[in-house]
Amino acid sequence: MDKFLFFLFIFLFSVLEKTILKGFLIFGAGPDIVLLMVICQGLNTTSRQAVLIGFVSGIIKGLTQPELFGIYLLSYTFVGFSAGIVTEGVYRDKIWVPLIVTFFISAINVLFLIWFLGIFRYIGNFSLYKAQFFSVFYNTILILPVYYFYEGFIFTARRPRV
Amino acid sequence: MTGMNSKNFRNLALFFLLVLLSILIIYFQAKSVQEKKTGIIENICIAVLTPIENFSSSVGQECRDFFYAVFHYRKITRQINLMERQSSLLEKENILLKEAEVENSELKEILSLSLKLGKIKGGMAAFVISRDADLWLEKVKINKGYEEGIKENAVVINSAGLIGKIARVFKHSSEIKLLTAMDMAVPARIHKKNIQGIVYGMGQGSLVMKYIDSGADIRAGDIVITSGCGEVFPKGEKIGNVKAILSTEKDLFKSISIEPFVNFNSLNFVWILNDAK
What we know:
The structure holds 2 protein chains of 2 kinds.
Chain A: H1 2-18, H2 33-43, H3 47-64, H4 69-86, H5 96-122, H6 126-153
Helix pairs in contact in A: 1-3, 2-3, 2-4, 2-5, 2-6, 3-4, 4-5, 5-6
Chain B: H1 2-34, H2 40-71, H3 73-116, E1 123-131, E2 139-142, E3 155-157, E4 162-169, E5 174-178, E6 185-190, E7 196-201, E8 207-213, E9 223-226, E10 238-245, E11 253-260, E12 269-273
Antiparallel strand pairs in B: 1-2, 1-12, 2-5, 3-4, 3-12, 4-5, 6-7, 6-9, 7-8, 8-11, 9-10, 10-11
């Protein structure tokens, strides 16, 4: 049930990113809430599950933007894998963990996206690169409210009721 | 230790498997883009998501508008004030344009009338310049007088029909006694029928035609025109439509009420026929 809820939120956030959140761009950069949700899930589950969740989230986000379907698959699989693997053995309840993980994963993801998108069509578009780099900071700032939201609404769903 | 390594290996294998799958999908997607094909899945996604995105987009627009209004309150207030001033000016301009439009259509009527009456000597156009509120349907004043050649008892018409006659002439203005005035009497007849009578003004909007033969066949909607009898009004000027029969069969003469063609409440331009007879 918590997985269903998680993927439902992934779908909703994918649609919101394309519509409502377009109005809240800073220097052309928008937040990637789906990425943040995958990181949150990655921090709270095993690395194997994190990879699968990243992959399925990529499918869902790809459905809302079919022209980038494959790229999202690859990108979120990598994000899930990174969040699951990198933080294994780290005491994840510390508040700085999601902040640092988000910053580095976002940055690597952006570099990967720029490289991949550059191969296809956006090569030489400096404003796009600039916007993508701003999105790293945007995501790092937003991870805290998203993390609290995740813990409050989704993660608690699988805790046994007392 | 071996179990841990095996677990890590499985995780890595899963990761690389999914990465491979993703790259394959990207490859096929890029190929279909190059061939300019649209996949069935893409079409289904677009069809399903479009209404959701439309809804979400409209909600997003509302949110953006709200936050814009909050953060740009002063700017919006200034713009509203400016627009209100502009709106007020445009409203005034609009009123003037509408007035000009009415004036234009009336001038066109006058022009067509003047072309129609071109052969009649002594005809001239005049503007209504004043009107007594207490005698609204009795008389009006026009901007032409004896200096311009207006004569007493000249017939006054417009494109709709007979208006009245010149009652008093001054140097640069004249007074028209309207057809609806209490003491106005015009010899008239029913158009296309040899039925004659006299049309009287009632001091209100309507007219009454009296002294009609009791056996005359008159019906509502028949047109009443001037008969040309008498010394003032020419023959054939339109007066109005028969509205109702007022008398009973026992009365010696028949009386009918007439709805005038001319709208006496909005007279602006008139045409004066000095030598109508």
